Input
Amino acid sequence: AQTVTQSQPEMSVQEAETVTLSCTYDTSESDYYLFWYKQPPSRQMILVIRQEAYKQQNATENRFSVNFQKAAKSFSLKISDSQLGDAAMYFCALEGNTPLVFGKGTRLSVIA
Amino acid sequence: DAEITQSPRHKITETGRQVTLACHQTWNHNNMFWYRQDLGHGLRLIHYSYGVQDTNKGEVSDGYSVSRSNTEDLPLTLESAASSQTSVYFCASRETETTDTQYFGPGTRLTVL
Output
């Protein structure tokens, strides 16, 4: 079975600062994909970033980057230059031979 | 513009009633998914479909059913609604492969009294 664990139910960051959200996972598959989704108060699920497990290079999307440690089964999200609009629930997710499995989420607050 | 819609957006029903939540996408995506979101649990997979006439059970499928008669729609039916099924329900779709982005609908908030 695939599992995803987000150990930080809540985080906060000052505007313009950097924050890292943690995610660990477990899977027996060698080929899989990892995702970070953002859910603002509107409830809309928005894909932030995606990482293919076979790629060693960490994915980057503008201010968002990941630290993918395959051996440690760790997939953290770093948000640089945090903005008020980054305040949301963030979900880590894993997909292999079965559809997406989500973590329980981390609520990120951004302090002006 | 292509999109994915859910209806109704809010629904209140009584225990024991049959309820159907609609999901419609205009991208012609093969893969469609239903999730429920509960506080403290994140999103959990209920059912999914990889094409017409194909349906599969997810992690929390008990009490739910789906059918896929065309590419655009995957309705979710609660055969006999229970209070434990009070939740926010999300439909999602993607073209085919895991590498494709999964697009989510706006969600349906269901309350079972």
User: Anything to note?
Assistant: The two ends of chain B are 37 Å apart (CA to CA). The mean pLDDT of chain B is 93. Residues 12 and 111 of chain B are 5 Å apart (CA to CA). DSSP finds no helices and eleven strands in chain B.
